[in-house]
Design brief:
Elements (H helix, E strand, L loop, with lengths): L23 H14 L3 E3 L1 E3 L2 E3 L4 E6 L2 E10 L3 H16 L2 E4 L2 E4 L2
Parallel strand pairs: 1-5
Antiparallel strand pairs: 2-3, 4-5, 6-7
């Protein structure tokens, strides 16, 4: 238990952008949203730090416009899992372990 007397300062928020019509912030935001809506991103499955694309591809769409595709993503399936377990088995067989994005000798 502390016997000190503390004076905690009143918290203050940082000033934020208003994004009001006609402001530079609003125009910059609208331009970036337009730029990103014109790009279709490819999202792979990541297995042991490697990007893996599969033949099972689904789409990410805008919440308010389901016809507009924002991204395509690969779904993991039996092949993806089999590949992961085979890699793990081979590493273990050779006394190696997967650590982050690198392969190391197990101690």
């Amino acid at each position: 238990m502390s016997n000190g007397i503390f004076k905690i300062p009143t918290p203050k928020n940082e000033p934020g952008n208003t994004y009001a019509p006609g402001t530079k912030e609003r125009e910059t935001l609208k331009a970036e949203l337009e730029r990103q809506s014109n790009i279709v991103v490819e999202i792979p499955v990541i297995i042991n730090g490697q990007n893996v694309t599969t033949d099972r591809v689904k789409q990410v769409v805008m919440p308010h416009n389901h016809q507009h595709v924002l991204a395509n993503y690969s779904e993991a399936g039996e092949k993806s899992y089999a590949m992961q377990w085979k890699q793990q088995w081979l590493l273990k067989k050779h006394g190696l372990i997967w650590h982050g994005n690198t392969v190391q000798r197990s101690s």
